[in-house]
Records
---
Amino acid sequence: MHFETLSTYEKLSERAADFVAAQILLNPRSVLGLPTGDTPLGTYRQLAARHKAGKLDFSQITTFNLDEYLGLAPNHPQSYRYFMETNLFSKVNLPAQSTHVPGGIGEGDEMAAQYDRLLQAAGGITLQLLGIGHNGHIGFNEPGAIFTAPTHAVTLTPETIAANARFFQTENEVPRRAVTMGMRPILQAKKIVLIAAGEDKLNILQRALTGPITPEVPASLLQLHPDCTTLYTPEKPV
Ligand code: F6R
């Protein structure tokens, strides 16, 4: 496990974008695993700027997002598909059919199984970018998650519902269920870059990266990955 502390959120975003850009240059047909949330916003801005400057070509890249709320249509402003379209997909030359976000409308388990099949057919993730929740969740793999789980439907914890309520008008509007890539396909990624911004993430980072490897802290499983880099800055996302 490699750990770097960056002095600012901007520097963290540049460094994370460097990893993604290097991967794309090395293998223009890479499969990227992507998170939503506040933390990757700066990375996505960087990637869009590099593409605009003619330095990064996404035309052969495939992407798989980690998760999606169940019950939100792709055009719902709080859906993760909408987030990705707004913050990255519309700003780079990724072919629409090469971007994958789990379906929000339909039967959760069926959509999850279908998503895993697509991911396997694409050869799995080459580079997985991750954020981390305050309770150690990865994607929507909450404390107690089964380490070997494939993509699956989950019920969100009260803590995650409360944390995500900031994006909705009321906490009641936060969907209670989601589809998430499981820890198995995430851990099968060839390379992982975990990004965390803000001193409020330091405690869980320490637990995840140096504490016991336990389902109670899903991110602790990253300790077993042979090529995982963690980028941390005390500065919150701006
Ligand atoms: C979302 C995801 C989540 C977030 C985590 C941190 O796709 O994977 O696990 O990475 O909740 O979110 P932020 O970055 O908003 O602190």
---
Amino acid sequence: MKKRVAVLISGAGSNLQALIDASSAGDYPAEICLVISNRPNAGGLGRADKAGIANLCIDHKTFPSRASFEEQINSALLEHKIEIICLAGFMRILTKSFVEKWQNQILNIHPSLLPLFKGLHVQQQALDAGVSESGCTVHVVTPDLDDGPIIGQARVPIMPGDDADMLSARIMVEEHKLYPQALKKFAQT
Ligand code: GRF
């Protein structure tokens, strides 16, 4: 049985697209059944539409509290019988209570070699630190930000003259390969 996956996004959804593409293979162990965006204009919603995947916007700005926003997400996940949640450029921090409800069922992709460079603007953080390589990490989500057991990592070199956009683009190519591989591995366990 394929695992039922929801992808949570806030933006363009290129990682979502990589997951959709990978999951179209007959032997892939996971199926993308639902896409949720917290932003109404997220490009990823169009990608879900095009792939015929149920999708909805749950706009955090329209909720009085983080808890009520998350309750709405939780209801949608239950309604669609979701087993694994993939965060893919989802720009809201999930509360401890939500993460504990879905313990060991949430994955995130982060554009650095964790545990190095957590939080935002991590490509710039890597450049400022003067490291010679960076990359991306897929990890299980725990209540601490950008923490939790690592499922997989991919590395890229940092080149002379790189700026944050150039490094982001190089990392992104690897993200699109890593996330489908990591989800496959995770869904099989
Ligand atoms: C990716 O770099 C991801 O690692 C980060 O946000 C970006 C999302 O891009 N957390 P996209 O929406 O998947 O194109």
